[in-house]
């Protein structure tokens, strides 16, 4: 694949429509083949693949088909792609995702890009692996509205899926294999090779003066690095930034999982990669634009008794806010001559 093209492989609207997709359903517009071993510049070499679920092209292709197939929902109207839209950075384009029967929860569908490196999944971290994450939306009454076993039975009765599963798994269609297939597909949804990655790799000309100043602000006065750290620009931890604090519906985030007082209002730090494609922002989709996000942090987040100490007023000027915006946008742009890491 040409040098830059595969870097955006998961985002380019390209080949391969899903056969048999329902009218109005999200379609598979990804390239015919997704990279299995290639890791984009800027990302870690180890994408956290479990020993009991090694990546294979056949498994990825099965997971890809399942990801776009509404058969996993109780009435055949909702697929994984309904909320995590490929054309929108594998995130939700509405504030709250619409599930089966138009039902809505109170959280935004986050991006699936680079979740191969994740340590906790969902905004509250209630799943610790992609395999665990993959099955929960199927069972959720607000999402796919189907018990996992009911979905397995529909797959077992399907004219094609039993053979497709047996070609990958010796024991055929099971809940465990369903999770492994979808998780394998999600592990190849990588986004790197940004102009920021090229700059950090030594190409000084990859960033404009404003973007370089934005990077300096990001790593110093902006204090963004305290939470958005490392190659994937996230510490994979949980923080209270005061988003929507005190507003209905009340969402206590991580506390709902751990029941620890210190976790009230804490939510998982999302990656910043591809963020220009994934608006609206925050766990509740309450900030519509990237400008609003920067201004939110510039004024010190949303004050509350559990606010993270790292969230403080920044006092950035208008020009500094613009520079930080330019840097964050460059993190989503491809480097002109970017190549996969060796």
Strands, helices and their partners?
Elements: H1 57-68, H2 80-83, H3 130-139, H4 148-157, H5 161-166, H6 175-186, H7 195-200, H8 209-219, E1 238-239, H9 255-258, E2 267-268, H10 290-298, H11 318-330
Antiparallel strand pairs: 1-2
- In total, how many beta strands? 2
Question: The CATH topology of the largest domain, please?
Answer: Cytochrome Bc1 Complex, Chain D, domain 2
Distance between the termini: 15 Å
Radius of gyration: 20 Å
**Which CATH top level class of the largest domain fits?**
Mainly Alpha
CATH architecture of the largest domain: Orthogonal Bundle
Short structural description:
With 342 residues, the chain is an all-alpha fold.
Key traits:
342 residues, mainly alpha, Cytochrome Bc1 Complex, Chain D, domain 2, 2 domains, 11 helices, disordered C terminus
Structure report:
With 342 residues, this protein is mainly α. It has two domains: 5-186, Cytochrome Bc1 Complex, Chain D, domain 2 (Orthogonal Bundle), CATH 1.10.760; 195-330, Cytochrome Bc1 Complex, Chain D, domain 2 (Orthogonal Bundle). Helix content is 28%, strand content 1%. The protein contains eleven helices and two strands, in the order H-H-H-H-H-H-H-H-E-H-E-H-H. It has helices at residues 57-68, 80-83, 130-139, 148-157, 161-166, 175-186, 195-200, 209-219, 255-258, 290-298, 318-330, and strands at residues 238-239, 267-268. A two-stranded antiparallel ribbon has the order 1-2. It is globular and about 60 Å long. The two termini are 15 Å apart. Mean pLDDT is 89; it is low at 1-23 and 337-342.
